[in-house]
Amino acid sequence: MNFEIRLAEKDDWEQIAQFNLQLAKETENKKLDWETLSCGVQNVLSDEKKGRYFVACHDNKIIGQLMHTWEWSDWRNGELWWLQSVYVDAQYRQQGVFRKLYQVILNDAKMKKNVVGIRLYVENENVRAQKTYEKLGMNQSGYQVLEELF
Fold first, then answer.
1. Global pTM?
2. Is 4-135 in CATH node 3.40.630.30?
Protein backbone atom coordinates (compact mmCIF):
# COMPACT_ATOMS: atom_id res chain seq x y z
CA MET A 1 0.00 0.00 0.00
CA ASN A 2 1.26 3.46 -0.86
CA PHE A 3 0.82 6.29 1.59
CA GLU A 4 2.51 9.59 2.34
CA ILE A 5 3.44 11.30 5.58
CA ARG A 6 2.91 15.03 5.92
CA LEU A 7 2.61 17.71 8.54
CA ALA A 8 -1.03 18.11 9.50
CA GLU A 9 -2.91 21.17 8.31
CA LYS A 10 -5.61 23.18 10.06
CA ASP A 11 -8.34 21.56 7.97
CA ASP A 12 -7.31 18.12 9.29
CA TRP A 13 -8.57 18.90 12.80
CA GLU A 14 -11.82 16.96 12.59
CA GLN A 15 -10.27 13.67 11.47
CA ILE A 16 -7.49 14.01 14.05
CA ALA A 17 -10.05 14.65 16.77
CA GLN A 18 -12.09 11.64 15.61
CA PHE A 19 -9.00 9.44 15.79
CA ASN A 20 -8.28 10.78 19.28
CA LEU A 21 -11.82 9.83 20.34
CA GLN A 22 -11.25 6.32 19.03
CA LEU A 23 -7.81 6.13 20.65
CA ALA A 24 -9.18 7.02 24.09
CA LYS A 25 -12.02 4.51 23.72
CA GLU A 26 -9.79 1.67 22.48
CA THR A 27 -6.87 2.09 24.87
CA GLU A 28 -8.44 3.43 28.06
CA ASN A 29 -12.19 2.94 27.55
CA LYS A 30 -12.60 6.70 28.01
CA LYS A 31 -15.13 8.97 26.34
CA LEU A 32 -13.55 12.35 25.65
CA ASP A 33 -15.54 15.57 25.52
CA TRP A 34 -15.83 16.50 21.83
CA GLU A 35 -15.79 20.26 22.35
CA THR A 36 -12.71 20.17 24.59
CA LEU A 37 -10.92 17.73 22.29
CA SER A 38 -11.77 19.72 19.16
CA CYS A 39 -10.43 22.92 20.69
CA GLY A 40 -7.30 21.12 21.88
CA VAL A 41 -6.52 19.71 18.43
CA GLN A 42 -7.21 23.05 16.74
CA ASN A 43 -4.96 24.83 19.25
CA VAL A 44 -2.05 22.54 18.37
CA LEU A 45 -2.66 23.00 14.65
CA SER A 46 -2.71 26.78 15.14
CA ASP A 47 0.39 27.04 17.32
CA GLU A 48 3.43 24.91 16.55
CA LYS A 49 4.88 25.79 19.97
CA LYS A 50 2.26 23.49 21.48
CA GLY A 51 3.18 20.54 19.26
CA ARG A 52 3.01 19.18 15.75
CA TYR A 53 0.71 16.56 14.27
CA PHE A 54 1.92 14.37 11.46
CA VAL A 55 -0.55 12.37 9.41
CA ALA A 56 -0.30 9.38 7.12
CA CYS A 57 -2.50 9.67 4.02
CA HIS A 58 -3.67 7.09 1.50
CA ASP A 59 -5.71 8.28 -1.49
CA ASN A 60 -6.05 11.73 0.18
CA LYS A 61 -7.57 10.11 3.28
CA ILE A 62 -5.91 10.37 6.70
CA ILE A 63 -5.24 6.84 7.93
CA GLY A 64 -2.90 7.50 10.84
CA GLN A 65 -1.46 10.20 13.03
CA LEU A 66 0.92 11.14 15.77
CA MET A 67 1.65 14.34 17.60
CA HIS A 68 4.90 15.36 19.17
CA THR A 69 5.57 17.87 21.91
CA TRP A 70 8.75 19.14 23.50
CA GLU A 71 10.28 18.78 26.94
CA TRP A 72 13.52 20.41 28.02
CA SER A 73 15.97 18.15 29.83
CA ASP A 74 18.42 19.99 32.03
CA TRP A 75 20.18 16.69 32.70
CA ARG A 76 20.88 16.26 28.98
CA ASN A 77 20.94 19.94 27.99
CA GLY A 78 18.57 19.22 25.15
CA GLU A 79 15.01 18.55 24.05
CA LEU A 80 13.16 15.28 24.42
CA TRP A 81 10.37 14.83 21.93
CA TRP A 82 7.26 13.17 23.36
CA LEU A 83 5.04 11.24 20.97
CA GLN A 84 1.35 11.49 21.74
CA SER A 85 -2.01 10.79 20.12
CA VAL A 86 -0.56 7.87 18.14
CA TYR A 87 -3.33 6.23 16.14
CA VAL A 88 -3.68 4.18 12.97
CA ASP A 89 -7.12 3.40 11.54
CA ALA A 90 -7.90 -0.27 12.27
CA GLN A 91 -8.07 -1.31 8.59
CA TYR A 92 -4.55 0.04 7.97
CA ARG A 93 -2.77 -1.47 10.96
CA GLN A 94 0.15 -3.87 10.52
CA GLN A 95 0.98 -2.25 7.16
CA GLY A 96 3.88 -0.04 8.22
CA VAL A 97 1.90 3.16 8.80
CA PHE A 98 3.15 3.81 12.33
CA ARG A 99 6.65 2.68 11.38
CA LYS A 100 6.79 5.33 8.65
CA LEU A 101 5.33 8.05 10.90
CA TYR A 102 7.91 7.19 13.54
CA GLN A 103 10.75 7.18 11.01
CA VAL A 104 9.82 10.67 9.79
CA ILE A 105 9.87 12.01 13.37
CA LEU A 106 13.05 10.12 14.25
CA ASN A 107 14.88 11.42 11.18
CA ASP A 108 13.71 14.97 11.89
CA ALA A 109 14.83 14.72 15.52
CA LYS A 110 18.25 13.30 14.65
CA MET A 111 18.92 16.19 12.27
CA LYS A 112 18.51 18.73 15.07
CA LYS A 113 21.53 19.13 17.36
CA ASN A 114 19.44 20.10 20.38
CA VAL A 115 17.21 16.99 20.34
CA VAL A 116 18.53 14.25 22.62
CA GLY A 117 15.80 11.61 22.40
CA ILE A 118 12.23 10.54 21.79
CA ARG A 119 9.79 9.30 24.40
CA LEU A 120 6.22 8.15 24.59
CA TYR A 121 3.95 6.66 27.15
CA VAL A 122 1.85 3.57 26.57
CA GLU A 123 -0.85 1.90 28.63
CA ASN A 124 0.46 -0.97 30.75
CA GLU A 125 -2.07 -3.36 29.21
CA ASN A 126 -1.33 -2.35 25.61
CA VAL A 127 1.24 -5.10 25.05
CA ARG A 128 0.79 -5.07 21.27
CA ALA A 129 1.78 -1.40 21.05
CA GLN A 130 4.69 -1.96 23.44
CA LYS A 131 6.04 -4.71 21.18
CA THR A 132 5.69 -2.46 18.15
CA TYR A 133 7.65 0.33 19.85
CA GLU A 134 10.35 -2.07 21.01
CA LYS A 135 10.77 -3.46 17.47
CA LEU A 136 11.51 0.10 16.34
CA GLY A 137 14.32 0.41 18.88
CA MET A 138 12.56 2.04 21.83
CA ASN A 139 13.28 0.69 25.32
CA GLN A 140 11.53 0.69 28.67
CA SER A 141 12.73 3.83 30.43
CA GLY A 142 12.49 2.60 34.00
CA TYR A 143 10.16 5.49 34.82
CA GLN A 144 6.48 5.51 35.64
CA VAL A 145 4.26 8.44 34.73
CA LEU A 146 2.41 9.95 37.67
CA GLU A 147 -0.13 12.71 37.29
CA GLU A 148 -2.65 14.96 38.96
CA LEU A 149 -5.18 16.23 36.44
CA PHE A 150 -7.45 19.23 37.03
1. 0.91
2. yes
